[in-house]
Amino acid sequence: MIVVMKSDATMSDISGVIKALESMGCKPHPTRGADRTIIGVIDARQGADFTQLEGTPGVEQVIPITKAYKMVSREFRPQNTVVNVNGVAVGGPEFVVMAGPCAVENREQVLTAARAVKEAGASILRGGAFKPRTSPYSFQGLGEEGLKILLAAKRETGLPIVTEVISPELVPLVSEYADVLQIGARNMQNYALLEACGKIRKPVLLKRGMMSTVEEMLMAAEYILSNGNQQVILCERGIRTFENSTRNTLDISAVPVIKRNSHLPIIIDPSHAAGHTEFVPALALAAVAAGADGLIVEVHPCPETAWCDGVQSLSLEKFNEMMTNIRAVAAAMGRPVRAAV
Ligand code: PEP
Ligand code: MN
After folding, report:
1. Which of 139, 140, 222, 305 could form a disulfide with 69 if both were Cys (CB 3.0 to 4.6 A apart)?
2. pLDDT score for 311
3. Cα–Cα distance between 323 and 142 in angstroms, integer?
4. Cα distance between residue 148 and residue 222, in whole Å
5. pTM
6. Cβ atoms of residues 11 and 18 within 8 Å
7. What is the separation of C-alpha 46 from the centre of its chain, rounded to a whole number of angstroms?
8. DSSP 8-state code for residue 187
9. Which residues, given as ranges, of the chain have pLDDT below 50?
10. pLDDT score, position 45
């Protein structure tokens, strides 16, 4: 439910409504806009009667939230949420590019990739230290050693780090190193992990499950927000369809749909969608044109020898080339690409 205040409502009108809601057992979330204040409410008690609020001083309208998800809905918070990643604003006017290897392999590989992606225009470094692999016999990641390597690359380049956390028990460890905790597609409905990430005070990158609807992704995000963490970035990374010429099918429509239904930033992962380097740049450009807030792209200094996802990882040269085109499309969209500082 949302209480829309009149544009001339006073501070005491607003605090009066907040107090009234609290006395009804609700948790009010006021947002002060340029013109008026709106107060989002999660219905704490079944059957609470909000009609009495209609006559309260300063109240213009009481609107029920129609969606199953509440805190992530645009009805609840009309303005875009901007997630601050150590000074890099995701969801603001600038388009943000995150790039780096699928998995951390060694110091040299990560540092080479970090320097090159920064030079090419990325402003956040990606790299998996804990890898959720389809086969138990595949490389599972370097673990904490990998996190230490990412931190060394961050110290040298100044790029914040996004890295995956695969279980609730690992949230404290990964939080020590990461600037953004990534929840992978395979874990989108791992509710214990979502709740654990809701209790931290660091941004979370939530990837869409490969067999999940947009609504299921928004419900997953609701777990994080309702546990107290509002800093969530959504990521569309391709879904399973009958089409098998790409690894997954990039659901580009998810971008405008999410923009309409949620205030959270949405970025695209063209690498896991395409599954092949050849198709990555086209999908990345489509993301910019569709109005996404950024990209997360796999880049490797030597894709042929990568331990993980080499076929879909761009070489440093290809990434640089792609970034030139991204800047052109972003400029056409009136949305500059954020440069690393
Ligand atoms: C990844 O980012 O390397 C990854 C495992 O992605 P996803 O969870 O989207 O498969
Ligand atoms: Mn990968």
Report:
1. 222
2. 98
3. 29
4. 31
5. 0.91
6. no
7. 31
8. G
9. none
10. 65
> Which atom of ligand 1 lies at the shortest distance from residue 103's CA?
3
Q: Which residue has the tokens 């320097």?
A: 115
> Could you give the 3-state DSSP secondary structure of residue 235?
strand
pLDDT score of 44: 57
Q: Which atom of ligand 1 is nearest to the CA of 182?
A: 2
Q: What residue type is 271 in one-letter code?
A: S
DSSP result, 101-150: -SB---HHHHHHHHHHHHHHT--EEE-BSS---SSTTS----THHHHHHH
Distance 46 CA to ligand 2 centre (A): 43
> Quick one: which ligand is closest to 269's CA?
1
3-class DSSP assignment, residue 198: helix
Identify the pLDDT of residue 46. Answer: 65
Q: What is the DSSP letter of 170?
A: G
Question: Which domains occur in the chain, in start order?
Answer: 2-63 (3.30.70.1140), 83-332 (3.20.20.70)
Tell me the per-residue pLDDT of 180-203, one tens digit each, with 9 for 90 and over.
999 999 999 999 999 999 999 999
